[in-house]
Amino acid sequence: MKIVLTGSLGHISKPLATELIAKGHSVTIISSKAERQKEIETMGAEAAIGSIVDTNFLSETFKDADIVYLMEPPFNFFDHNSDPEKFWLDIAKSYAQAIQQSGVTKVIHLSSVGAHTDQGVGMIAIHHSIENILKELPNTVSIKTMRPVGFYYNMLAFIPSIKNAGAIIQNFGGDELIEAWVSPLDIAATIAEEMELPFDRRKVRYIASDEVSPNETAKILGEAIGKPDLKWIVISDEQFQSNLINIGFNLQIAKGLTEMNAARRNGKLYEDYYRNRPALGKVKLKDFVKDFAAVYHQQ
């Protein structure tokens, strides 16, 4: 099959491309960075260098593709001059327009846990809006929506508070709360699997690798970095948001992250996940901690 991937050589797109190429598919990888072209071509893929908000570029790149994989790139949380909601919605609209113009009929879209609603989930609500933009495409376009839980590498954000305060400090936590996490490798494997399964209109699939309480997470991370007594400390929403603002976060992002974490605490974020709970992937937290420890000791 001819498959077009957005996401450049990111945490998901690179292992996904590697697997698809190994299976004999023709893969085109979109990147905004010309310096990525050589690496992409060395992998055995075709490089398409351009902007994902350039609809004409996207349309031409999507043309004749059997499947396109869509993802929205991360926003710089410290950018005070841009609107994160506009940033992501502009990309979604560009995708939708390019799909219609190119005639693509099979799409896999990377969304997020919590995208089942736009109420009470903070910054995740934007994924609900993006999903709705894509849902407006004609029914002749089959869309598989992937909703992964929080990525393991998001835990790297715990490192500064561990080093500076000796603890993981969040506005959610405890033993009773079970937090789901996912490896990008398991996401890539799931997407590759879905590409070879039949497409029939619209489908949603959740992706997770492990489910661990915050306190157990602190114990596992602590043992990996030589701090077996590492604690997970819960602070108020107000304190958490204030901490984010104090270290330079965009105000909209700080509010959105605080509300998202509150949705973890009250169950809103995961309510649809538990109604459609997936089989867990192969990469467990105890596998990821080796990478966490390596980064921790480098910083």
Automatic annotation (TrEMBL):
Signal peptide: none annotated. Residues 2-262 form the NmrA-like domain. Coiled coil: none annotated. SUPFAM superfamilies: NAD(P)-binding Rossmann-fold domains. PANTHER family: PRESTALK A DIFFERENTIATION PROTEIN A (PTHR43162:SF1), PTHR43162. This is Uncharacterized protein YbjT (DUF2867 family). Pfam families: NmrA. The lineage of its organism: Bacteria, Pseudomonadati, Bacteroidota, Chitinophagia, Chitinophagales.
